Amino acid sequence: MIRINLMPQKRRADRGDGSQLWLAVVMVMMLALVAALFVFHGFKTEELNDQRRKNAELTSQIDQSKSTVANHEDVKGKLTQLRAREEAINRLQSARTGPTAILLELARLLTPGRGPSVDPDRLSALRRDNPLAVFNPAWDSRRLWLTKFVEQNRKLHIEGFAQDGEDVSELARRMNLSSYFANVQLLPAVRQMDSTTHSEVVSFALEAKVKY
């Protein structure tokens, strides 16, 4: 009769199964950890790439701003040149048309029945407040004639003759009212005999600033 003892063999088999189970659990945990590391690495990589894109955009904006600032001085210089040219053109235009306008205004002042170019409201105020400053519309401008007219750097010098001092005052009064003249000053006048009419006349001169 043969006896077989199976108890030790069963314990060894149980211990072997437990080790394999533990090894499987450890492998699963390792795989899960590796997978988590891959996911974390991918997330951080995407975050890094996003930050790099933002940095690139900021760098582009900074470069664009630098380029704009650099061009600003160039544009500013060109604008200054254009303004200087415009002012020069305006000065040339004014110098071309200004003297003509002054001569036309003098012609109006010396034309019978005409008067200075003056704002109507200003003239009405003068008639009310200071009637002596208003020109005389009945003045006969043929009582006065000009012999010299010089305008330089917008400063006018006039010389001429008049039958008496009131005629000279009337001319100065009209020029003071005119929008084309300012700071009218009468220079000392001299009485003398006119060689043509053999009558006494007033030799006068005046200075003024012209506006055009």
Describe the structure in your own words:
The protein is an alpha+beta fold. Strands 1, 2, 3, 4 and 5 form a 5-stranded antiparallel β-sheet that branches. The mean pLDDT is 79. It is rod-shaped, with a radius of gyration of 52 Å. Helices cover 59% and strands 18% of the residues.
Descriptors:
Gyrase A, domain 2; 5-stranded antiparallel beta sheet; 212 residues; 59% helix; single chain; alpha+beta; rod-shaped
Topology:
Blueprint: H1 7-109, H2 120-129, E1 144-152, E2 155-162, H3 165-177, E3 181-186, E4 190-193, E5 200-210
Antiparallel strand pairs: 1-2, 2-5, 3-5, 4-5
**Net shape:** rod-shaped
Mean pLDDT: 79
Which spans have pLDDT < 50 for at least 5 consecutive residues?
A: none
Largest sheet: 5 strands, antiparallel
State the helicity in percent bands: 55-70%
Helix/strand/pairing class, anyone? Answer: alpha+beta
> How far do the termini sit from each other?
148 Å
